[in-house]
Amino acid sequence: MSERDVGVVIVAGGNSTRTQAAGAGELKQLRWVAGKPMLLHSLQTFQARSDVAMVVCVLPQRYAGDPPPWLFQCDLDRMLIAPGGKVRAQSVFNGLEDLPSECRYVLIHDAARPLATPEMIDRVVLEARKGHGAIAALPVVDTLKEVDADGRIVRTVSRENLWRAQTPQGFPREVIVRAHLDARAAGVDATDDAALCERIGVPVVVVRGSERAMKVTEESDFTRAEALFPLSE
Questions:
Q1: 163-172 and 133-139: which strand pairing?
Q2: pLDDT tens digits, residue range 83-131?
Q3: Domains of the chain with CATH codes
Q4: Residue 116 CB coordination number (10 Å)
Q5: Helix/strand/coil (H, E, C) string of 42-84?
Q6: What CA–CA distances, in Å, run from 149 to 146, 152, 153, 154, 157?
Q7: pLDDT given for residue 18 in this prediction
Q8: What pLDDT is recorded for position 131?
Q9: What pLDDT does 21 receive?
Q10: CB atoms within 10 A of CB 95
Q11: What integer pLDDT is reported at residue 1 of this predicted model?
Q12: Cα(183)–Cα(45) distance, rounded to whole angstroms?
């Protein structure tokens, strides 16, 4: 039995504007993909780990007080609900505040990535335990083009040393809390938590992610996630 010293914040506080614009009225993080609601995939994956003490699900304000009933088929002793903020960093910080004191390490995960694998999570946790930040990521394999406002190619960008960030992202708790407090004081938001650590000089390393851990953003991504679901890492 591993020591339960890892806390998880699953960020599901967004309003899914792109998928709702495509005609889907339900928030994407609550929609079903590969056999269950997206958020439930992530919640059950993290609760299956023996080192996880608590998972905080950050939901939009209107859902935080009345969560979907299927959430309660999980380990209720290791689940909390927190309200989302106006921006992502506020949502994450709300989740961080609710983690119990035994959570010395924190994983932050986007509910829009429902198929993160246990192996990639292991790699992130292993690096976070060394005292620095770590993110799951994949190397860029496509040729990259910079374009102007009219869509004309300005230049070809070298893909060497470029990685596509995924989640989970893991940190020692005091590190990520300090990064968020510093960002809040400066009025800074970011699209991921590693960027907040970078701005205060905390080292962050990449570990190998998984193609399964794609981000469901557009309506067409639901079909792709269904296709990736049976694949092993």
A1: antiparallel
A2: 999 999 999 999 999 999 999 999 999 999 999 999 999 999 999 999 9
A3: 6-228 (3.90.550.10)
A4: 25
A5: HHHHHHCCCCEEEEEEEECHHHHCCCCHHHHHCCHHHEEEEEC
A6: 10, 7, 10, 10, 17
A7: 45
A8: 97
A9: 42
A10: 29
A11: 52
A12: 30
Output the pLDDT for position 187: 92
Q: Whose CA is closest to 48, among 81, 20, 8, 14?
A: 8
Q: What is the largest CA-CA distance in the chain?
A: 57
* Residue 22, both tokens: 């495509």
Confidence of residue 14 (pLDDT cuts 50, 70, 90): low
**Cα dist. 73→35, 46, 82, 117, 196 in Å?**
15, 14, 18, 21, 34
DSSP reduced 3-state for 7: strand
Measured distance CA(91)–CA(170) in Å, rounded: 16
Q: How confident is the model at residue 223 (pLDDT cuts 50, 70, 90)?
A: confident
Q: How many CB atoms lie within 10 A of CB 172?
A: 18
At 209, is the pLDDT very low, low, confident or very high (cuts 50, 70, 90)?
very high
Tokens of 108: 């932050």
